[in-house]
Amino acid sequence: MRSKIKRLAVGAIAAAIMVSTSAMSGTPESKDPIILTIHDWTGQYITTHIMGRVLEEMGYNVKYQQADYIAQFAGLESGDLHVAMEMWETTGKQAMEESLKTGKTIDLGETGMLAIEEWWYPLYMKEKCPGLPDWKALNKCAKVFSTAETHPKGRYLGGPVTWAGFDDERAEALGLDFEVVHAGTDAALFAEVKSAYERKAPILAWIYTPHWAPIKFKGEWVNFPRYTDDCYNKPEWGMNKKMAYDCGKPRGWIKKVGWKAGNDKWPCAYQAVRNFKIDNQSMGEMIGKVDLEGNKVDGVVDDWLKTNKGTWKKWTQCS
Amino acid sequence: MKLLGKGSKIMQRLVLLAAMLALTSACSGEKAADNQPGDKSPETTSTNVAEGPAVSVSADKTHAVQPGDEITLTVTVNKFTLDTSKIGKPNEPNVGHYRVYLDDASGDNFLADSAADTVKVKIPDVITDGSHQLRVVLHNNDRSPVTPAAQGDVWLIVYRL
After folding, report:
1. C-alpha neighbours within 13 Å on the C-beta side of residue B157
2. Which of B14, B42, B98, B126 is deepest in the core (most CB within 10 A)?
3. What CATH number is associated with residue B130?
């Protein structure tokens, strides 16, 4: 009886080992490197490096390739690039939908983060422009937001041109007496916001989240007419019957997107990318550790991987 | 320096002491600057009253809060006893409850009134997209705020999707 139990126990252990091995067996399906795209904002560096490190743990070769946020779709369609970890509904929805229609790219699902990126002002500006956050108040206080270069028009500091977002079109369609000035980089954008905030100087700028900025800098987003697909696609929609973009940006998901053929080449890796999930809270804190506390992305990613092993290990399960 | 007399050595020590004091004062000044409202940690903040009661608060969610969301606050007091049974009773020193206010609200315009270690508050359905502050303010049994005021706060990023 005892030896039978012993044999059963040994069998159970062997079966358990086989099951656990089978979850990872056959990976990597190809030694060719999986190319993850890198853009120009801290959060995207973090999500991409977390994913890259997890894929490496699974045995895949990974390469990081700098790519333009919107223009990367050409590379994702051709297979020169393989996975993009952050496509924001706020700015990338149209480009992503167009690309998916080609049948050469694949939607790899939501990251779990919920985005907003819109025209933003510090709370102290409400005294100088009392009608805010209603967008209609902007023209009444364009001069309050003006600078020597833009006077008498107000100045709106937009994101880098590569982020898209249609702010130039938005200003024109809504008849805003504002000049849209694009920051050169993510860092330049936040440096200018920080400088203005500390001096309590007027500023109207592109602020997005997940990010530390809306916690560090107290402020509000302008309340534009709510986005609908028709607002971007049909000029006759909204208050300006001749122009599209007379509304705010979309809000919501941040998705992963990939080269479709990669799904057949590295199925388990693509499954892991699909499984990737993180929330705004964790991401906002990690971005703050890099941007505010001066930590390196690698170190922050290391810490996250060490303390969240139970989370990312589940991503690697391949059915 | 070796040629300097005893008086000079005393002077040297005094200068050193003054420099140390100046450094300490500069450091404490920097710390005070770090505690400006705009720079507070999003999760836990408190107003420290030197002698009297103090309160600190943390929230289970500070990012991507949506109108109508329920936030759980954890409240910790120092030199103060929270006691629900005493609400409405005569005041006792350093005994009472707290009220949770949104942004600049005051008086009876509170989101919650409690003496528990944790409290759930519902973010109003109508609220601007942006930074909002939940303030936990200690109150006496008779529902008057304690003096000097003791408040802890937490900042949220709220937006509609």
Report:
1. 26
2. B98
3. 2.60.40.10
Interchain CB distance below 8 Å, A281 and B64: yes
Model confidence over B66-107: pLDDT tens digits?
999 999 999 999 999 999 999 999 999 999 999 999 999 999
> Exposed e or buried b for every residue in A67-84, given b needs 16+ CB within 10 A?
bbbbebbebbbeeebbbb
d(CA A264, CA B40): 48
Query: A217-249, pLDDT tens digit by residue?
Result: 999 999 999 999 999 999 999 999 999 999 999
B58, amino acid identity? S
Contact A54, A34 (CB under 8 A): no
Do A308 and A260 lie in one domain? The reply is: yes
Q: Are A239 and A225 in contact (CB under 8 A)?
A: yes
Q: Does the beta carbon of B61 lie under 8 angstroms from any beta carbon of chain A?
A: yes
Q: Which positions in chain A touch B131 (Cβ < 8 Å)?
A: 123, 214-215, 217-220
- Between A3-12, A134-143, B45-54, B139-148, the lowest mean confidence (pLDDT) is in A3-12
Terminal Cα-to-Cα distance of chain B (whole angstroms)? 71
- Compute CA distances A260 → A26, A315, B143, whole Å: 20, 20, 63
Alpha helices by DSSP H, chain B: 6-34
In this prediction, residues A135-157 reach a mean pLDDT of: 96
The ipTM value here is 0.83
User: Hey, is the C-beta of B38 within 8 angstroms of any chain A C-beta?
Assistant: yes
For residue A280, the domain's CATH number is 3.40.190.10
